[in-house]
Description:
eight-stranded antiparallel β-sheet, 36 strands
Amino acid sequence: MIIQQNSQMTFWGKALPGSRITIRTDWDISVTATASIDSMWEAQFPTIAADNKKHQISLTTSDTAIVINDILLGEVWLASGQTNMIMPLEGIAGSPVDGSKEAIAYANDDELRFFIVDEKISWNKEFNSSGSWQKTTPNTARKFSATAYFYAQMLRDSLKVPVGIIEAARGATTCEAWASDTQLKNSVDFGYKMSDLNALCKEMEVFNEWYNSFPHIEIQGRDSHESRLLAISVDDEFATLSMPQCDSWNEMTLPCYWTDTPLGNFDGVAWFVKKIVVPSKWIGQDLTLYLGVIDDCDRTYVNGVCVGAHDKTRQYAEPRIYTVPGKLITSNNVTIAVRVIDTGGNGGFGGCEGGLRIQKDKKDAISLNGEWKYRPAGEFHDGKFAMFDPVNDVYSHRPYPTEMLTRMSPASAYYGMIYPIQNYAIAGVIWLQGEANAGYATQYRDVLPLTIKTFREAFRNEKMPFYFGQLSNWRYMNGAELGNMREAQRQVAETTDYCEMFSALDLGTCDDIHYSNKRAAGERFARLALNKHYGFKDIVASGPVLSKFETHNQHVLLTFDNAKELIIDDKKPGQFEVAGEDLEFFPAAAVAKGNTLMMFSHAVPRPKHVRYAYDNCAEATLFNEEGLPAETFMLIPQLED
Length: 641
């Protein structure tokens, strides 16, 4: 393992009540602890400075001896958040990592080690966390967080000490999932949900008993839902044909996301069926089916025949446009059936321009908006997929806990993944998260500080550095205003001590939420740590950071830190806007001189407010002399979702 140098290290565990545990280090430290009546014990001891030597620590009781070898002292950081932090060095399907093959090939470093915390959600105070410390080799590094790996590499090069990364991240998790119930009780939005965690646990026990009574298949590993489900039938024959049984199903008005319906935060498979009558002139004619975006996967059938599918979870933002061969339209009666799989997040139909519809041409279309029959066919939970009987509607008897335990549930990732490791001494936290909270900017602005406090309490350091990346550009399909989220992040970084942020505006694309330049993200984290925490003042910490805002008649003057010379990329669309008291923003011209920026617009004679790179798909156009982008910002009286 790697343990934090020059710190108070904690070892903890279980032993028979009353047992005396002695811990001895090979740097001449000896401490003891006594197991309490609940078997728990804990001991702290000081560590020494990194010396690039392999050390040994022994733990003994009257009848047991454990010796831990190959211990290095160095810098240990926690890497947490959601998919952009998880994304491994080898990449994931459809989202490669730039320079991956070369980085993996040269990944040989005995003094760079990772511990990957098992992905688990819980409301119980979990004691165990599976996993083990791994040295960096081409075989192991391919599974390491790419961002954290490049971060650790830059620390190694600059600090010349061993670096350990504890990777505790999970895709599609919300910010509140990583906060403790103790902190969330201070939240207007989540305090009432966290008022009685024991009651929530008991309700989940009832649900689990019901859930485990059904046939199920194990879903193991990341991104495995889709591959396992492709190989099985989820009542395909029953649901895709025009059968009387479907008439008794419940109805849902489409398009809509499940979170706004009785399904709520349902993660699983549901069938949607709609019967329509088409004109006689359509019989035998090729038609086009428009279903909009579907979160996450779909298989779509017309009269029992599959006409199209999106089987990858990463395709949740792709519009579903399918050709219906004329040979399937044999009469006026047509049945459309859609199997939807959701593995996290909203789930359901996001809609499209012009609405859901089937058409022969642009002038000849039938709207599919409105009531559809639907029935759940199976549900994901706790690493399993339970399959339901669609005939008897067993789902209608499903217990509904007050708060369903999912990866988006408040405190779920904290108790499942942070609580088991909370005593381990670390230097700080790097964090990539926020996509799952898009659309709730004001809420995020309140919850992120609670999550930061949670981590600082868990690791017993109220001044522990917490660094995060501002959200990159992406085309959100649920109407979320990403600019507001970025501004919420900026405000948290500005108002929270020992908290810093970097901009990722130049890393993403509008079509891929998982940007591929993870080296840049890792190195930007490292710049923050080296400058702010380790005192390397010759390393520029980040891109330009707004520090002063003035108005002079028709002009706005902005002053930035972290910039000697501001650089505007005029080859891209301008991202500067100004507004008067009416908050109607207009594009503004901008001129840079030194670390100041002057903005003006003839449409706004008396500007009061400014913003930069606020659209969801905005690209970075403002940089410092190091080529690092400025963060999105908006200066108005109050942030709104």
